[in-house]
Amino acid sequence: MRITNSMMVNSMMRNMSRNMVRMDTIQQSLATGKKFLKPSDDPIGVSRSLRLNTDVSVMDQFKRNVDDAMSWLETTEKATDNIIEVLQRARELTLQGANGANTVEERKKISDEIGQLRNQLVALANSSYAGSYLFSGYKTDKPLLKEDGTYDLGGLKLSTDENINYGIGVGENLGINFIGQRVFGYANDGAVDFDKSVAESLKGRQVLNGAFVDFTTPINLDASNNQFKLNYMGTDYTIVLNEPAVYDGTPGQALSDLRADIESKLTAIAALNGKVTINQEGGRLYFTSLDPAVADNSIMLKNDSLDVKLLGFTSEKKSSSVVNSGDKTQLIGAFDKLIQDLNSDNVKGIEQALTRLSGHINNINAVRAELGVKYNRLELTSNRITDDTLNLKALLSKNEDADMSEVIMNLKMEENVYRASLAGGARIIQPSLVDFLR
Amino acid sequence: MRTTFGTFTIATSGLFASQRSLDITSHNISNSNTEGYSRQRVIQRATVPIGGDPTGIIGTGVETYDILRFRSEYLDQKYWGQAKSHAEWRVKTEGLEDIEAIFNEPSDTGIRKVMDEFFASIEELTKKSEDITNRVAVIEKAQTFVASINTMGRQLIDSIRETNFTVKNKVYEVNSLAEQITNLNKQIFNMELGGNKANDLRDQRGLLVDKLSALADISVSEITGENNSKYFNISLGGITLVNHYNRNKLTVHNEPVPGVSDLGAGDISQIRWEAPDGSTLGAVKITGGELRGLLDVRDGDFDKNAYRGLPYYLNQLNRFARDFAREFNVQHKAGLDINGNQGGNFFDEPSGAFAENWKNITCINFKVSSTLRSDPALLAAASQKDGISNNENAKMLVGFRSKKDIFFDLSGGQKINGTPDDFVKSFLSTLAVDSNQAKRMSKNTEAIVVQTNIKRMSESGVSIDEEMSNMVKFQHSYNASARMVTTLDKVLDTMINRLGLVGR
Fold first, then answer.
1. Considering only residues 111 to 130 of chain B, which have any Cβ-Cβ distance to chain A shorter than 8 Å?
2. Could you give phi then psi for residue B267, rounded to 5 degrees?
3. Which chain A residues have a beta carbon less than 8 Å from that of B112?
4. Residues 175-234 of B with CB under 8 A from A
5. Would you identify the CATH topology of the domain A54-204+324-389?
6. pTM score, two decimals?
7. Exposed end of chain A (fewer CB within 10 Å): N or C?
8. Rg, C-alpha atoms of chain B
9. Alpha carbons within 13 A on the beta-carbon side of A296
10. What residues does each domain of chain B span?
11. Is the CB of B431 less than 8 angstroms away from the CB of A40?
12. Domain segments of chain A: what residues?
């Protein structure tokens, strides 16, 4: 091939400019520390880098959420610890008060201290974290209790499903608050006895088990009161029971027989078959959802031709234990009753108070246990998030960070090539025949 | 019979031939750096000999009869065929690199980052939804998010306008080149009537065609007519652009393009043929060259134009803004504000061409609702009345980020699958792959063009060494011819002045 001078100059220029382009790329990754600067430099790497960056930022947010949730739980834990201390002191005092040998003045003193403890409990019920009341559900701007021991909530209701959820992972939420009635209980009819059903209500058992029937009085069914409506997932289903029938507790007419009857009617309705069942526990029948996605408390009972109360069913409302403003608190109620009994020297009442207090102590210990479990879970989550973040950052770095030693080496190599081509070019271009003609 | 002074004629013809060759050598050296120049060589031959002499046929000297231009028509055609694809891909690479710069990923100012921050602020809100600072933070982050979408949209629009301007300029450039070529055609034709080649003018014309071949996909032909006269023709998209002395003109026809012009890009110039009376004729078919690249970058919406250029990414951004705003509004309106009232629109849904207001949202008019901006209490974080810490709707808004059924197709009919992140990632990946491919194509086609050009230069380029040795060669032959004249002079001197003096 015939080679001319300008061809040599051109190809030298072209090669050197290519060399410069490569040097520029390497310089850029040296200056930025990144393997790529534009999507087109590495389409897959950039797309992965976008995802990893988002993941890291999401993890950072989860970490902040977990930290906040932990502080909230710590404050709640402190409040419940104090409540336990109050209750234990009250129990000691009650034991003292139950001693028949006490004088009127001594019992007065005890009653005064119990009164102080009661006020302390009200204050504890209104504990707050960063300006938010701990036990008031979504109404964090409203105190839980009034001075008189009834629910305050600024005139509003408090329902057990008012869980403030923090996101602590992808699709992973943790309710950080404990609802007031869970800790302090409620006594609609003013009952302060800590019996089994109330204990269940304290644990939010009603919520878990949905609509229920208490078998208290003999139930007489006839054509006028043999049916009721069950609301499931927004649809009413009419349940017609066998009649005439009397359920008075005698064999063949026991609560279990009523249960069997209702169950057979439930299974007869296709939409409810396998979805809703009825369970018996002690003297109570519960409607229970079999579908894990449907909460028990979404099952509602409605009366139609009969007053459901005749059947013993809770009346027409969700069976979730909604507390209204002005409802009495079981715990404070127990204290009030105790003070009353101490003042009136009712030894039997004082002794009953001991059982009630033990019941409440057990309940609050259960709350503390749950707190502990949640806190533990948060600690584990926090560790996991830290690990995940580290892993993600390592991946991110591997994906987009340039290996400095490699970059510097490449730069040196390109520099050498550049020098060589400059030197070679200078030698090749310079002489032509002109230089040798005299 | 030998003539006395015949040898003089032979020697002078040698002098003249050497001189002519030296002229051309000098011309070559002078033009060694002229763009498009092809080296020339004098072609010489022995003159017609004289017969009838008993010695044999006697030579009568040398004559120069042509000046040859070293140029391969085959390589020219090859180059003109290849230049267009390199130019096209080079322009596309530049266009797509611009779009990459507009989206600015990976960086701390791209969509990903502002979206991350927007959702992080909502997540913060879920923890204390009654806190006014949290609410203001969400609205501010939303503003940043919206503003970066707006800016990107405007930059894409600006880019369309600039590309359109370049298209117009390139059309004028084609016209100007065609005119210059026509003028050269006239000169070349007139000069070549005598039968000789107008070498230097042909070089100039070749250079103009080189330039034209990078602008659009032309086909070039030179037809030999009667008397060996040459007619030079260029056609563009199957229609004659240059026909010997005549040419057709291109013009631009400005018309609005829906979805582009109404967003502020102005009228788009379509390339048309122009009739001699100045009226506009049909569209010009352009399948290659810089113009094709520019048109693809300017008009590529992956629908009417099969390429993914500026309008495609503008549409993607429009869809992103439109569907994001719509679904986010639906979720926001499902919630309650701090006063327990039903939430309003989070993003504005302007009225416009479409009856459904959300369909009127574009990346340009995408905005946070002004009522919400003036009163952060209207942010609907709650799901039910009673309770300012109810964060359920805010949680749903956080969950929005992983929602997979947000986006519709372009017309707003069919849903497509993917989260907001997937959507952004998907069109950025498309951009990355397209840009990467354009770069690679540009590099590959460049290598081919360079290869052909090297071959062309190998054939036509001036080599100084070669010219120098020719110079020496011709100089020597000149010297020798001159010495011949001197020698003949002496011979004649002897013959005329000294011969026949014996008897004096």
1. 112-113, 115-117, 119-120, 123-124, 126-128, 130
2. -70, 150
3. 50, 53-54
4. none
5. f41 fragment of flagellin, N-terminal domain (1.20.1330)
6. 0.80
7. C
8. 38
9. 19
10. 6-70+463-498, 72-460
11. yes
12. 54-204+324-389, 208-311
